[in-house]
Amino acid sequence: MSGDADNEARIVDQLLAEAAAEGWYRVNPYVTRYLALHAAAAGKLPVIAGDPDYLVAADPAILTGALGTGLDPALPELARIYLRRAHSMRSAPVTERMAVLRLAALEAGEDADFHRPESGRWWPEWVQQPLIPFHRVLEGHTGGINAVAHATLSGGPVAVTGGEDGTVRVWDLVSGATIRLIEAHDGSVQAVTCIADDGNTLLVTVGDDAAVKVWDLATGTALQVLGGHEGWVGAVAATRLDGNLMVVSGGFDRTVRMWDATAGSLVETFRGHEGTVRALDVAHAGADVVAVSGSSDATVRTWDLRGGAAGGILGRHNGWVLAVAVGVVGGQATAVTTGDDRMVRVWNLESQEERHRLAGHAAWGRSAVLLVDSALALTGGADRKVCLWDVERGLLLQAIGGHSADVTGVAVTRLEDEVVAMSASDDSTVRLWSIAAVGDVDEVHHSGWVLGVAVTGALGTRVAVSGGTDRTLRVWRLADGRHLRTLTGHTGWIGRVTTSTEDGAGVVVSVGAFGEAVVWDVGDGRMIKRVVKAPSSLLDVATVRVGPATVVLTAGDDGYLRAWDIETERDVLAVRSHDGGVRAVAGRSSGERSIAVSGGTDGALRVWDLVTGQLAATLPGHTGWVREVAFLDGIDRVVSAGDDHTLRVWDLRTGSSTVLRGHRDAVLTVVGGMVNGQPHAVSASADGTVRVWDVSTGNSFGIPLGGCYGLAFEATTIVAATHLGVFGISLHRDDTTSTSGP
């Protein structure tokens, strides 16, 4: 050990002694802020990074930088678990960081025995989702990220990203830090690529300002600005052609252009696409150098760069082609394409034949890359997933979740002798994924987004029933999340689930695509009936007593609110209820009163008397779509969630409302319940949080859980349906919302 390392080790020992004497939460702030840096210099970081109390007390920004990418094999697994949620640690109060750490552990499939702080307001009890491989989240862009590429700079691996904020960021992939920021374009940076050039690394960027720019990556200096495109440029690739450095670009003007990057001159303009050029890559197919482009005209075209001629149409998608990647698979030049039709297509560039047509993404495919010297490819999509494919055999190996918005770019590099995937997203993050940690697709968890959840009594216990885009309902024991049963029968996605009015009977109703409403007996796993009354998708469902009958309420994509008897299927009400679409419905009965409250795209709530079938009141207030409506205490108070970032608590007797503010984006769902005898609401937003509200005081706090589309709330238990899976969260029984917080 060197003298400096010896000194650092002695400092570490002294700081650890102070922490042992005072406790991590009371020790001098210098210890929790700077211990990580001293420990890294002394080679002792792996020792302290296995202590959960230290991890939650430490300064998140400094500790995250010291831990780097987390791929150092000497680091304990707990350090990698921490890095999964380090971005959430920064905004969490110290008293709730242990809950965030446990959430990360459960997401990693580790049921770590962390102690629950007495002052913590929430605690993750269980998580049921496909295991997500280790990944590190990098943050810095102030808007969505459109592209990512890998490069080597000063002998070390870096990632290069381009974003909607007009900047390019260069990331050190050892530390995870931004080492260069380039103000690159007037408007969004749409695509980036890097290429080695005589010992230097050149960066090429394109953007909304119609420019193609060549940069010295090491200095951030612009070397060339190539002008000629008419409108935005959305795709770029770079290659060597007869010893010359060439850049190939495409964009709004429907052309593919080839530039001499050294001379700064336009060499060739290729025309043939009938739509905008959205994707490009360059392949060496035998003696030929070929550009492969994808367009909004649904075609994949090839272009002979050496001969300056169009090679023709390679193939077609059923929609825009948004991503192209080329490489060598099985000794053959190969292209992988994807786009609006969600399909991933594999092409042999030498024979011009389609090899595979693969399904896996649940929404548009937006990005693709082929791994060097392998038969593996990665694609990213609007379903927020990164899919790993064996393109030689035509197999989906795994769909990896984690991002909270579209995955717009994917790339591959090597770190610590390990293959690492990089993904960029509209959620403003870059994520580094360990490909070696990718596992098999399982049969227990939902294989797509989970959109709805309800709690009922069945199988001798309280259960959560969830439904989603994989067309299944899954039944989980509420206490510990154990999987009990899977129900199949829907022919399309399931968007919402509700219980029957006889709670505890184990009867639920699920709705979704194709106007289907399905009634289930959860206890014996039986479909009781399928009812189709709407010509298109049903977006919400509730049940309510009307006299002796249980009535099902549905909100339809066709703009209709429908109510029908669950036994006889007789219509009670069918009315076009809003000036636009109807998105939400809730029902409640008390004595002889039975009412439904609907919410729509017109920003209004409407109250319906289900006994008379008449409209009782119209309640304007929201300035955007109403996404959800839920009853609170009794029949006269409801809470609504809107695209205007607010919740509103309504008194149905007077029509007055109170606005609850705290979310920073559209509020997607809300449920009501009672905690300690007080009415509470739980909401989920596109801002990446679930918030718990004391509606009497307006106080709330946030839980870092993104991509949440459905909620259930019973006593002090929240069940959240997200794009990744199902989460069970318990609230502190005392004083859950005493103050407003992050």
Account of the 3D structure:
- With 742 residues, the protein is mainly beta.
- The chain contains eight helices and 56 strands.
- A four-stranded antiparallel beta sheet has the order 1-56-55-54. A four-stranded antiparallel beta sheet has the order 2-29-28-27.
- A hairpin with a 4-residue loop joins β13 (255-260) and β14 (265-271).
- The two termini are 44 Å apart.
- The model is unreliable at 738-742 (pLDDT under 50).
Describe the protein's topology.
Blueprint (H helix, E strand, L loop, with lengths): L2 H20 L6 H14 L2 H4 L3 H6 L2 H8 L9 H8 L1 H4 L7 H11 L14 E7 L6 E5 L5 E9 L2 E8 L3 E6 L5 E6 L5 E9 L2 E8 L4 E5 L4 E6 L6 E9 L2 E8 L3 E6 L4 E7 L5 E9 L2 E8 L3 E6 L4 E8 L4 E9 L2 E8 L4 E5 L4 E6 L6 E6 L5 E6 L4 E5 L4 E6 L6 E9 L2 E8 L3 E6 L15 E9 L2 E8 L3 E6 L5 E6 L5 E6 L7 E6 L3 E6 L4 E7 L5 E9 L2 E8 L3 E6 L5 E6 L5 E9 L2 E8 L3 E6 L4 E7 L5 E6 L5 E6 L3 E6 L4 E6 L5 E9 L2 E8 L3 E6 L5 E5 L3 E7 L2 E6 L3 E6 L11
Antiparallel strand pairs: 1-56, 2-29, 3-4, 4-5, 5-6, 7-8, 8-9, 9-10, 11-12, 12-13, 13-14, 15-16, 16-17, 17-18, 19-20, 20-21, 21-22, 23-24, 24-25, 25-26, 27-28, 28-29, 30-31, 31-32, 32-33, 34-35, 35-36, 36-37, 38-39, 39-40, 40-41, 42-43, 43-44, 44-45, 46-47, 47-48, 48-49, 50-51, 51-52, 52-53, ...
Shape: globular
Regarding CATH, which class of the domain at 136-436? Mainly Beta
Unreliable sequence segments: 738-742
Q: What average pLDDT do the residues reach?
A: 92
Termini separation? 44 Å
- CATH superfamily placement of the domain at 136-436: YVTN repeat-like/Quinoprotein amine dehydrogenase
Number of separate strands: 56
Could you please say which CATH topology of the domain at 136-436 applies here? Methylamine Dehydrogenase, Chain H
Radius of gyration: 28 Å
Helix and strand composition category: mainly beta
Number of helices: 8
CATH architecture of the domain at 136-436: 7 Propeller
Helix content: 10-25%
Largest sheet: 4 strands, antiparallel
Please list the strands of the largest sheet in the order they lie side by side. 1-56-55-54
